[in-house]
């Protein structure tokens, strides 16, 4: 006859699982950042870039808060497990990467918010449509159309 009682998981195992799961979540932002930055650098329209950068900054803020929460169990268990000390080092490195991403995103957000730098989606669509019909604009005409 088998025992149907649930197995008890040690607190140490739970803490380790939570810590490594949290680190994995934090690393997702770091893996996505080069993709987002590359798309913005390739000429993403201003409003879309602003939306993406705002989302990145929100995710970074949440992950920095998560990193702060994860630090507390690491401090308590620092001497208990070698894996916890490895996790503490990885957590510190992940937090530093998040701060670097945050600084880059803020810098890019300032560029995106610069007036008359990027046309809005609708302005781009209108310009493309005008080009399809054969109407060509000089750079000055295009710039003036954006300022109107």
Count up the domains. Answer: 2
What about the largest sheet?
none
Q: What would the principal axes of the Cα set say about the shape?
A: elongated
Multimeric status of the protein: single chain
Strand content: under 5%
Q: Structural class from helices and strands?
A: mainly alpha
Q: What string gives the helices and strands in order?
A: HHHHH
Low-confidence stretches: none
End-to-end CA span: 82 Å
Provide the gyration radius in Å.
Answer: 24 Å
Task: Count the E strands.
Answer: 0
- If helices are DSSP runs of H or I spanning 4 or more residues, what is the number of helices? 5
How helical, in percent, are the residues? over 70%
Structure report:
The structure is a single chain. The protein has 148 residues and is mainly alpha-helical. It has 5 helices and no strands. The chain has helices at 11-41, 46-77, 82-112, 121-132, 139-147. It is elongated and about 75 Å long.
Structure characteristics:
148 residues, mainly alpha, 2 domains, 5 helices, 0% strand, elongated
């Amino acid at each position: 006859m088998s025992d149907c009682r649930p197995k008890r998981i040690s607190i140490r195992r739970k803490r380790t699982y939570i810590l490594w799961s949290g680190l994995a979540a934090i690393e997702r932002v770091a893996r996505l950042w080069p993709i987002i930055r590359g798309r913005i650098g390739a000429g993403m329209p201003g409003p879309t870039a602003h939306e993406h950068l705002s989302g990145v900054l929100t995710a970074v803020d949440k992950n920095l808060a998560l990193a702060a929460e994860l630090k507390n169990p690491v401090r308590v268990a620092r001497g208990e497990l070698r894996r916890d000390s490895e996790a503490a080092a990885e957590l510190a490195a992940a937090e530093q990467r998040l701060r670097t991403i945050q600084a880059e995103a803020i810098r890019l957000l300032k560029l995106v918010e610069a007036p008359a730098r990027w046309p809005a989606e609708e302005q781009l669509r209108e310009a493309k449509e005008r080009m399809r019909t054969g109407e060509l604009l000089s750079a000055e005409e295009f710039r003036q159309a954006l300022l109107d």
